[in-house]
Structure prediction request, 320 residues.
Amino acid sequence: MKPFIYITRKLPESVIEPLMDEFEVDMWNREDAPVPRDILLEKAEKASALLTMLSDKIDRELLQNADSLRIVSNLAVGYDNIDLKAANEKGVTITNTPDVLTETTADLTFALLLAVARRIVEADRYIKEGKWKSWSPLLLAGADIHHKTMGIVGMGSIGEAVAKRAKGFNMNVLYYNRSRKHEAEQSIGVQYALLDELLSQSDFVVILAPLNPETEGMFQGNQFKKMKKTAILINAARGPIVNEEELIQALKRGDIAGAGLDVFEKEPISEDHPLLAFDQVVALPHIGSSSEDTRYNMMTLCVENIQAVLKGDLPKTAVK
Prediction:
């Protein structure tokens, strides 16, 4: 009997074809909606492998009833949707998709920064709504990026890639991380700073940290009050790192000048979400790694990890 693999979103057949040649494969039939919890639990009970999304909760309940499960291959660099302790207890390998999305996510992060600072979305809407009647000296005047200070919270591979882009704009780059990155300090020219120092000195505060107990709720009202009133917050990491209600109040008070958000506390957000009422907020639907090339590479890596584990080999990108 062939091992059974369940895939929790509809993926292109060209990507999963290698699995279909060797294993029994079933797949949720929607790309735009998560598999219902009851179906996921049912499929997991007999699965040898799961190919999952960040929206799928792989918790102790699921793992305890998945006696055949050998690998969960998560289509993301993050894995905060997975109970790693429970997985380790059951001997289930967890893999993710690091590295292949680094440059693409860094591109999007910097694009989000540029869009907020230079009021790109506002300007596009201004024309489309028929408001542009003449040129004026301060029409939609935004903030410069060049020669300003960027503060990066979370200096992993994506943080380093964003820092390199910032250096191309002649920016001064500070970073806060749980460990010093001496090599990055030398090769890129970034400077380590304590969080409060970074907040007070940065014109752009860019969150690229993983979500864990240490970072969840890291940004509260006190953090926004320590930032410059002209500063812009960019979050391309995970929504729960920022207390959204406190961010809303900070924007109302003018504690900070604006925000660019690719992630939210609860996703997807609705069109009447309070953050969307601010002209100085640019909101994106969690598309950090969403280029065609990168997403196909991520899917392929997930498939290769599953093939390796089910054949008794080591996966390429096991979560330690």
